Amino acid sequence: MVQGIISKSVFILLLTVQASRAESLVQEWKIRMAGLPAAQASLTFNITPTTYVLHMSARMAGPLSMLFSWKNESESSGLITRNGILVQSHGISNKWQDKTSNFLLNYSLEGNLTGRVDTPPLAEALPPPDPVLASGTQDFLSALVAGGLFISRNDACPKVMPVHDGRRRYDVAITDAGMDNINGQPARHCRMDISPFTPEGGKRPKGWFWKRNGKGKRPDPINIWMAQNPTTGIAVPVKCTFTSDVGDVEMLLNRQ
Length: 256
Hints:
By secondary structure, the chain is of the alpha+beta class. 17% of the residues lie in helices and 51% in strands. The protein is built from four helices and 13 strands. It has a 13-stranded antiparallel beta sheet, with helices on both faces.
């Protein structure tokens, strides 16, 4: 067991070293809700032909930041293969008002999800994920890399992407809506329909995202546009929109 932990630590260190040698792409995003500034985020891509590291930093912005405090730091890393990606690590630090939640997703060297660890102050012992439901899944950030890789290799949106957050699995069904022009560059339009599975504990997802458009009604598709980028070598997001109970939400690329 100790040998396995050491091997995994060395492997992640090698991933980090390779990523540091790669040219970074930094995207700055502004997020508007019902036409008003709501948040801002940055995505940092470090991608080589064989590895990836994707970091996201986000926080509340605009008038809402005077009422609510929210910050999020997330990072994923893994391998790029002929068949797609193998996730090796994923971690999130999230702070809402005065409540902080941190967790890590653990993966085998083969990219299989083996468990989720919630760290203090909200440490919670979770059972290992169902191996059947966890099979072939990625975290949300890694799924963004996997989708961009698929688009660059196949010139089309992937049809489905299974995602697991350590508590439940989500099957993301994707429809290819063709090509559009976004900010003067061709971008592929993918419509994503996210369907959560019931987790082992039997609880359905909660929160504003799943409750929008009426109780029990499935959320409208999320629209995302992906454009090929010479720095990363894969397609990256350039625009994202969806509908919420408080109005349309737009994620617009400020600069990259």
